[in-house]
Design brief:
The complex is a heterodimer of chains A (645) and B (119). Chain A has 645 residues and is an alpha+beta fold. Helices cover 36% and strands 24% of the residues of chain A. In chain A, the strands form 8 sheets. In chain A, strands 2, 3, 6, 7, 12, 20 and 21 form a 7-stranded mixed sheet that branches. In chain A, helix 11 runs antiparallel to helix 22, helix 14 packs across helix 20 and helix 15 packs across helix 20. With 119 residues, chain B is an all-alpha fold. Classes of the chains: A alpha+beta (645), B mainly alpha (119).
Chain lengths: 645, 119
């Protein structure tokens, strides 16, 4: 019995031991498995899981800088940036609820419901491997204003899908909430905004977009200058990106406590121009009125400060609105002041006269026989508008005699004439801070024909831009010193600290001061009853200027019905504040004539008068009163309008 | 001997209580500090959001101001309201020039600088 009991106990113990061993084996195996997994996760696949964990929580947000503003000399904003939204939809989230969503948000996007529903309809596309994959996201509308986007968000938050949500499954309810939260989303988009619409559009230029990939792999659009100052100053205006490394919670909200790196973006620099928006507006207003009156192909105007070369206004018509580039035509977007060249006509006579006087060949009082209006040179006739006999050099400029100018040029000779043309900056770029400037055409003397020496002095056989011509005139106004045209005064940071200052630059002195004074005297006569530019005369200031009318070349021949009319002048003549050039390409001769004296000079007069009033340029004389002595401009000036307006 | 043993026990209990209290206080302090840090970061985030919203609003106002102060718009508005405003004629401007003795040193410097520039 005892033996049997001992055997039973022994069997039980053996069973227990086996069981114990079995369970111990299971536990050990489990631990080994866990240990293996632990090593696998923590050591072997450490990098992979680290990356996955980071992808789940860590985000790098690129903080884009604001593009710098462009302002005029008085701080008026000419170009700025604003954030808008590109509204997008995630079709994989919307699924078959797209019609409901379309009905709700179509009014906000100013689209019809069928049109929007078609865009939101779930569909597939064939990828590069030939496999049909569902289309995930579509862009519904660009340039959506922030308040419209807020309305869309509110609408989506409260959207009803026509089902009793308490009675549906948890998953179905979650799907509806996903539609509300993520079905429609936005991508931020920076756009350029020009508050003054067309004002100075050719100077400012316009921007385009370029796509870049952010560190998180997201493709974003950024703006880049395409023309005008937007292009030239693109690097300075763009600024430097910043970034922020964050961790997010399950709702994709930032957990600010775990913010790792936070580098603020550096905004682009602000460009302060020499342009004055007030004068620019005056110019564009007068050009617009003149465009109606003369119906030309184009009108251009440049206003320059002769002493510094600062461009105060630069305008072309036809023009365009950089806020609405889709409507702009290529010919409207061309800045003709720097991209179009033409034979300048009689305004070029100032170069020849200045050369003749500077070389000591002539003085203002010297006389030249003008052949009674008809002169043959190299077998080709040269004619004047009137039958002039003998004229002084001053008279030749004042009456714009082609024959007199040709005789000055002939006496100078090819080489000296060519040298002065180049000295005044023709045939080379002025260096203005705008893209697309051309050099103009000044042939070398070897390529001149026999008649060239008689044609070039009257502004034929030489092509220049309106800017080159006005800078040449400004050089005479500036006592013989040719300045480089300035458009940008300085670049400042967001705290208005000057980062870059542009100073006036002297190019060269094509003529001496005494010669320039004599030419100014002759140009003053031009704007008098003895000259061609009477219609440019101002009540309060003495004007010096020159008219120009050139026939245009069509298929190699000068035609009688197409002209290039211009007037370039400055005032006050002896101490010039502004030099203004008005150029009309093909004025309609049936409406108000085609001579520069009839078409461009009156426009100059209106622009000069209003600009002088706006800038409060001290008058030289008050009409019907003795001229007042002009003193140095005082630092304190108070404008007190009279009550008897 | 028994008294000594009791004294030792009291001392041990007291030390234990002090240590436990210190640990508890440290724990509570840690949690409080963590909570404060969370609250501060939450406030910071809210303030950042507020700052961003204000910046956006400021940008909108600046753009509105820029559009409203556009010369073309002002010109059109003056015509629309028939205010009769225009720039004064040169004859309507009275230019005042103070006597040199009345000019403050800074203005005298400015004037001399302006004169030099003009020359």
């Amino acid at each position: 019995m005892a033996r049997k009991k001992a055997l039973t106990e022994s069997l039980i113990r053996a069973t227990q031991i086996r069981r114990l061993c079995f369970f111990a084996g299971c536990i050990i195996t489990g631990f080994i498995a866990l240990g293996y997994k632990l090593v696998d996760v923590q050591v072997v696949q450490h990098e992979r899981f680290t990356q996955l964990a980071k992808q789940n929580t860590e985000r790098t947000i690129v903080r884009r800088p604001k593009r710098g503003d462009i302002v005029d000399a008085k701080g008026t904003v000419l170009a700025t940036s604003k954030m808008v939204h590109t509204v997008c939809a995630d079709l994989t989230i919307l699924t078959n609820h797209y019609v409901t969503v379309a009905k709700e948000i179509a009014p906000h996007l100013e689209m019809t419901v069928p049109e929007l529903a078609e865009m939101l309809r779930p569909r597939t596309r064939r990828n590069t491997n030939g496999v049909d994959v569902p289309v995930r996201s579509v862009r519904l509308k660009r340039r959506v204003e922030p308040h419209i986007w807020e309305e869309i968000r509110e609408t989506m938050r409260g959207i009803s899908f026509g089902v009793e949500e308490d009675s549906i499954t948890v998953n179905a309810k979650a799907a509806l909430n996903r539609i509300r939260r993520y079905g429609i989303y936005e991508e931020p988009q920076e756009i350029r905004y020009y508050p003054n619409q067309t004002l100075a559009s050719h100077v400012l230029g316009f921007v385009g977009t370029t796509e870049s990939v952010e560190p998180n792999g997201r493709v974003v659009e950024s703006i880049v200058g395409r023309d005008g100052l937007e292009k030239t100053l693109d690097n300075a205006l763009t600024g430097v990106r910043g970034w922020r490394q964050i961790e997010t919670d399950i709702m994709r909200r930032e957990v600010a406590m775990f913010r790792d790196q936070d580098v603020a973006p550096r905004p682009g620099l602000k460009a302060v121009l020499t342009i004055d928006a007030g004068v620019q507006h005056i110019v564009e207003r007068e050009l617009s009125a003149a465009f109606e009156r003369h119906n030309p192909v184009s009108i251009s105007c440049v206003v320059v400060r002769p002493s510094t070369g600062e461009i105060v206004a630069m305008a072309n018509l036809p023009t365009f609105n950089p806020n609405d580039l889709g409507e702009a035509k290529p010919h409207e977007m061309r800045n003709r002041v720097i991209t179009d060249q033409a034979e300048p006509g009689s305004t070029f006579k100032i170069v020849v006269a200045a050369a003749g006087i500077n070389e000591g060949e002539y003085d203002l009082d010297d006389t030249i026989y003008c052949e009674n209006g008809s002169f043959y040179f190299a077998g080709i006739p040269l004619r004047d508008a009137h039958h002039f006999g003998t004229l002084t050099v001053e008279g030749i400029i004042a009456h714009s005699s082609n024959i007199g100018s040709a005789k000055i040029g002939i006496k100078l000779g090819k080489e000296r004439l060519y040298d002065y043309i180049r000295r005044f900056g023709f045939g080379e770029r002025t260096g203005i801070m705008l893209p697309g400037e051309i050099r103009g055409t000044v042939h070398k003397t070897e390529r001149w024909s026999g008649a060239s020496i008689s044609r070039i002095p009257m502004g034929h056989e030489v092509d220049c831009t309106p800017l080159q011509m006005v800078m040449a005139m400004a050089a005479i106004a500036n006592r013989g010193t040719l300045m480089k045209p300035m458009l940008v005064d300085r670049l400042v940071d967001e705290n208005d600290r000057t980062m870059v200052k542009y100073e006036p630059q002297v190019v060269r002195n094509p003529i001496d001061s005494e010669t320039a004074g004599k030419i100014v005297q002759a140009l003053k006569t031009t704007v008098s009853t003895n000259g061609t530019g009477l219609k440019a005369k101002l009540a309060y200031y003495t004007v010096a200027g020159k008219t120009g009318t050139a026939q245009k070349l069509v298929n190699g021949r000068y035609v009688n019905n197409k002209h290039y009319s211009s007037f370039i002048g400055f005032f006050p003549a002896d101490n010039p504040e502004l030099c203004i050039s008005v150029v009309i390409d093909e004025p309609d001769r049936r409406r108000a004539g085609y001579y520069g004296s009839e078409t461009a000079a009156p426009i100059f007069q209106k622009i000069a008068q209003h600009a002088a009033q706006y800038l409060a340029i001290p008058p030289e004389h008050i009409p019907d009163e003795a001229p007042i002595e002009r003193t140095v401009p005082t630092p304190i000036a108070y404008a007190t309008p009279r009550t008897d307006r | 001997m028994r008294r000594n043993k009791s004294a030792l026990k009291t001392k041990t209990v007291f030390t234990s209580i002090v240590i436990c209290t210190a640990v508890c206080l440290a724990g509570i302090g840690y949690v409080w500090a963590k909570r404060e840090v969370w609250a501060l970061y939450r406030d910071m985030k809210q303030l950042e959001n507020r700052l961003e919203a204000l910046r956006k609003e400021n940008d909108i106002l600046q753009r509105t101001y820029a559009a409203m102060s556009s010369p073309a718009r002002l010109d059109a508005r003056v015509r629309e309201l028939n205010l009769g405003l225009s720039a004064p004629l040169p004859s309507q401007i009275v230019r005042m020039q103070a006597e040199p003795s009345q000019v403050s040193p800074s203005k005298a410097v400015a004037r001399s600088y302006a004169t030099n520039l003009e020359e």
